[in-house]
Amino acid sequence: MKFTFIKHILNLMFSLQFLILVGLIFAWNYNSGMTNINLNNYTIELQTNHLIVFTVIIVIFMNLIYRVLFWLNRLYRRWIIGTFKALILPLRRKNKIGISKK
Question: From CA 79, how far away is CA 82, in angstroms rounded?
């Protein structure tokens, strides 16, 4: 069984990392001063270098999540399926889970 769903999630996260880095380049070029964020009569003013630091931190966290999901994908085949077989399948053989006999 190939884990295509997890591979699609990992590819999506990797492409989102690339888009954030492209956005960093545009923010560096076009926002040379302050960045205003308007939220219902409340404005947040950020300097551009703070914005770039925040997006770099987001990219680092996305990279860590990418590594953890990749590690879980490798662990998934041996450990989780093995414990599922060891715990659930003997119960199903004794008919404790599934169709109960009357």
Answer: 5
Q: Using CB atoms within 10 A of its CB, is residue 98 exposed (0-12), middle (13-18) or buried (19+)?
A: exposed
R_g of the chain computed on alpha carbons:
23
- pTM for the whole thing? 0.35
CA-based nearest residue to 11, from 51, 93, 66: 66
Q: Which positions ≥6 away from 13 have C-beta within 8 Å?
A: 62, 65, 66, 69
Partner residues linked to 46 by β-bridges: 35
Alpha helices in 35-97 (DSSP H): 48-75, 81-87, 89-93
Instruction: Using a pLDDT cut of 90, give the percent of the chain over it.
Output: 0
Largest Cα span, the chain:
76
- φ, ψ of residue 35 to 5 degrees: the values are -110, 125
